[in-house]
Amino acid sequence: MMLGVLLDMRLGEATRWHPLVGFGNLAIRIEKKLNTGGSRIVRGAVAWMLIVLPLVLVAWLLTFWLAQFDLLLAFGVHALLLYFGLGLRSLRDHTLPIAHALMDGDLSQARLLTARIVSRDTTQAQEADLAKAGVESLLENGNDAVFGTLFWFVLAGGPGVVLFRFANTLDAMWGYRTQRFNEFGRVAARIDDVLNFIPARLTALSYAVLGNAKQAWQCWRVQAPAWSSPNAGPVMSAGAGALGISLGGAAIYDGEVEQRPPLGIGPAAAGKDIARAWRLVVLTTVLWLALICIAAVIAGVVHA
């Protein structure tokens, strides 16, 4: 686990032959073939199983087989699978430049950078809108790209990472309430909700412990139920409360203003708060690694 995290922070995302990119291209082709009428919910479930389950099985068979012959090589494969599944450095590389642009007063550059990581319209966005988008992306994707991945690695090693990240990717691609995906992507969305249920709450708890715990708990309890996502609500509300800033509210999607439930307590987010949110994600990563390593040592002692 430590090796996988270190590889991610040292190398960042693979620029060529990234498994998630290849998986996304495969998902696009499968969706075009199967999302064509009939019972779209059933078709979406079949598509999910056709794409995810064989790849998880391959990862499990590979690591299981290697463990019988070469533990060191199996160790390396587990770490490599975790590296490909993590997005800690990617979060930093995509969000801190937004903070720097905002603090330098370069609004046009901040708009361009923010548009690369969120689906909302940023063409007329002001500093508070861009800072809000950056912080929200960090808090939510801290769970999806880092802590949920670590959680499933602890439970099931490299194959657990493959399961979680591919399920999360399909939710990001298909889990929309549009005419095209409302039924076809429903199973993908529900599976992601289930896989993320415990990691999201552990992430929210970690944000609270490392920030303003009282405010984080208050926001989590009061604001999270208003969000349509059962997992994003706790993560972002607790994170906003821990940081002592206000998120949520109005955002423009496809030319229309969407009023989202409020998140957090305090002043509106500013450029410097993106850096604060990044530090919270890093501290949470350190906390998780420390606790997991301590638990592993205790388990080893007990087992011995």
Automatic annotation (TrEMBL):
Molecular function in Gene Ontology: ABC-type vitamin B12 transporter activity; threonine-phosphate decarboxylase activity
Transmembrane segments: 41-62, 69-86, 145-167, 280-302
Cellular localisation: Cell membrane
Pfam families documented for this protein: CobD_Cbib
GO biological process per UniProt: cobalamin biosynthetic process
InterPro entries: Cobalamin_biosynth_CobD/CbiB
Pathway info: Cofactor biosynthesis; adenosylcobalamin biosynthesis
Main subcellular location: membrane
Annotated membrane topology: Multi-pass membrane protein
GO cellular component: plasma membrane
Keywords assigned: Cell membrane, Cobalamin biosynthesis, Membrane, Transmembrane, Transmembrane helix
UniProt family annotation: Belongs to the CobD/CbiB family.
HAMAP family linked to this entry: CobD_CbiB (MF_00024)
Function field: Converts cobyric acid to cobinamide by the addition of aminopropanol on the F carboxylic group.
Name of the featured protein: Cobalamin biosynthesis protein CobD
Native organism: Herminiimonas arsenicoxydans
Originating gene: cobD
